[in-house]
Amino acid sequence: MILARHLGIDPGERRIGIALSDPLGIIAQPHVVLDMRRGPVLDEIHAICVEYAVETIVIGLPTSLSGVEGSAAERARVLGDEVAGATGCEVVFFDERFTTVQAEAALLEGGMRRRERRETVDKVAAAVMLQGYLDGRAANDT
Fold first, then answer.
1. Any idea which fold 5-141 has?
2. What predicted TM-score, i.e. pTM, was given to this entire model?
3. CB 9 within 8 Å of CB 22
């Protein structure tokens, strides 16, 4: 059995949500939110990849409902190039439509207060997106 951890990134303009899979690459869990205003986040992402022996980085690609890529998708692709260069990991992109909405709904259902949701929603959205990627891989393996 091959152990391969995956890291999910939900990129935003101010914050980046980070999620990690378990070592078997089956379950995604929220990990941390990185604040872009604090400075470059590539060193932090690299450190997470080293600490958890990440093999693949999955970056959420924001597209419109029709699948058209806009400026946010362009920024995600640039981030992907930067992350690949900083970490040496394989980078793949995955459709992230509705992940923030799903994360927000789950946190609301759990009774989380607005301030706590703001601090948590990005890493939960990253986990939702990463889980979608992992589930798709599992479906293709069968």
1. Nucleotidyltransferase; domain 5 (3.30.420)
2. 0.83
3. no
Cα 117 to Cα 119: distance, rounded to the nearest angstrom: 5
Closest CA to 92 of 6, 34, 22: 6
To the nearest 10°, report the CA torsion of 18, 15, 132, 124: 70
Q: Consecutive sets of 10 residues in the chain, 142 residues long: mean pLDDT of each?
A: 84 92 95 88 96 96 78 91 96 80 63 66 90 85 64
- Contact at 8 Å (CB) between 120 and 107? yes
Residue ranges per domain, the chain? 5-141
Q: Which helix (H) or strand (E) holds 127?
A: helix 114-141
The answer to whether the CB of 83 falls within 8 A of the CB of 42 is yes
CB atoms within 10 A of CB 25: 19
Non-local (6+) Cβ contacts of 116 within 8 A are 107
Amino acid at 2: I
